């Protein structure tokens, strides 16, 4: 790979020496800038130690969360019964039933959303493998797995997965790397506008338009986390609003065929 990269740079230098000189100048300026920044950071070591400590703490909390989740799933029925008893003890029966209904609805929507997202990522991974095989890309299995897994992240997932794949392809064949970039852009558009909204909308009972609306609004308000949780949250709100509208129309004896 290093040899291929050297040959690529040699070819660029032979074709356009000015481009290589400009790139070298930019890299030199960047190195000087980073050197000056590092020399001016008096508390850099302390900051690094704090960052490492936070990282280790986050990893430990992650595994503790997995262990707690296993225990919760193991005793889920008992916890549900205890929660229901607590709700009915605190709230009137009417509100207790509503809270139980909302919690069951939220659980069902989030489960369907995550399952639908996993199916969407699986389909994208398979499509990526088939297309990369047809395009005679190297390491098609690795590329398909990386793109499929990172596709779980809404909107930006395929691009994040494409970065390491692009770097590897550049060192092998820059033409294939450019073809891969074009392919990923097309694949992301197909997934973001057709496959993803269709699967997620069918899973959580939302029309495609509302799925896209939930992703956009959730991302604008809470970033990537909002993009990921916006669809199931909006699905719960949409279902509750639909039920409330139906009950109000039924009380007024107003019926619609659809």
Using the CA coordinates, give the radius of gyration: 26 Å
Oligomer category: single chain
Q: What spatial form do the alpha-carbon principal axes imply?
A: elongated
Poorly predicted runs = none
Write down the secondary-structure element order. HHHHHHHHH
Mean pLDDT: 78
- The number of helical elements comes to 9
Strand content: under 5%
Structural class: mainly alpha
Would you write up a description of this structure?
The chain is mostly helical and 258 residues long. It is 88% helix and 0% strand. It is built from 9 helices and no strands. Helix 5 runs antiparallel to helix 6. The radius of gyration is 26 Å and the shape is elongated.
Short description:
By secondary structure, the chain is mostly helical.
What's the helix and strand layout?
Elements: H1 2-15, H2 17-40, H3 44-74, H4 76-90, H5 93-134, H6 140-150, H7 157-172, H8 174-204, H9 208-251
Helix pairs in contact: 1-2, 4-5, 5-6, 5-8, 5-9, 6-7, 7-8, 8-9
Name the features:
mainly alpha; 9 helices; single chain; elongated; 258 residues
């Amino acid at each position: 790979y290093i040899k291929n990269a050297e040959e690529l740079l040699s070819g660029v230098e032979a074709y356009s020496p000015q481009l290589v000189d400009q790139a070298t100048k930019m890299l030199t300026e960047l190195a000087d800038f980073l050197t000056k920044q590092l020399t001016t950071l008096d508390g850099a070591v302390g900051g690094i130690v704090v960052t490492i400590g936070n990282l280790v703490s986050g990893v430990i909390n992650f595994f503790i969360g997995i262990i707690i989740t296993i225990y919760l799933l193991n005793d889920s029925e008992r916890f549900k019964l205890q929660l229901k008893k607590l709700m009915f003890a605190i709230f009137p029966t009417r509100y207790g039933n509503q809270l139980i209904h909302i919690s069951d609805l939220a659980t069902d929507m989030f489960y369907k959303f995550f399952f639908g997202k996993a199916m969407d990522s699986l389909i994208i991974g398979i499509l990526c493998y088939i297309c990369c095989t047809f395009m005679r890309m190297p390491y098609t299995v690795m590329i398909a797995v990386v793109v499929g897994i990172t596709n779980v992240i809404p909107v930006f997932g395929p691009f994040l997965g494409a970065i390491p794949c692009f770097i590897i392809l550049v060192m092998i064949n820059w033409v294939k790397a450019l073809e891969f970039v074009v392919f990923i852009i097309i694949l992301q558009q197909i997934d973001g506008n057709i496959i993803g909204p269709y699967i997620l909308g069918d899973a959580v009972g939302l029309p495609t338009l509302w799925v896209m609306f939930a992703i956009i609004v959730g991302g604008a308000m809470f970033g990537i986390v909002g993009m990921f949780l916006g669809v199931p949250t909006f699905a719960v709100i949409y279902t509750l609003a639909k039920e409330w509208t139906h009950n109000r129309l039924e009380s007024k004896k107003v019926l619609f065929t659809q």
